[in-house]
Please model this.
Amino acid sequence: MKIDLRENRLSGQIPDEIGDCSSLKSLDLSFNQIRGDIPFSISKLKQLENLILRNNQLIGPIPSTLSQIPNLKIIDLAQNNISGEIPRLIYWNEVLQYLGLRGNNLVGSLSPDMCQLTGLWYFDVRNNSLTGSIPENIGNCTGFQVLDLSYNQLTGEIPYNIGFLQVATL
Model:
């Protein structure tokens, strides 16, 4: 089952009852005016593969319970007002391929665990308030095709093994 309501003028919050759609595989509510937190009930969607909520007015943290969705391949939360840190548990989702978090209010540092995602090819955290250094093991993220860390507050040295990346866009 797929719910595609992108590019409308929808407002309000994502209802908690969305978690009752047990056969939902794709949820696309992008380019609307949806506000509020991402409901924790989304973690009940065990068949969900695509969660696309970009370009809305969502606030609050990224629910760490998203890591409980075993088939989740795409998480696109770009261009919202999401705050807090990127939950480390997300980095242990073995099937995650696309993590789009650009243009939010995320803080904290990048976890070395990001390289645990062997299937991840798209990692975009551009235009947030991330601090700290680029993880030293970044060169081990061999699946990345797109890695965008720009417009943050990262410090320190560029890791020597960054040249091992086979990315098309860095």
User: Anything to note?
Assistant: Residues 1-169 form a domain with the Leucine-rich repeat, LRR (right-handed beta-alpha superhelix) fold (CATH 3.80.10.10). The chain has a mean pLDDT of 94. The first strand starts at residue 2 and ends at 4.
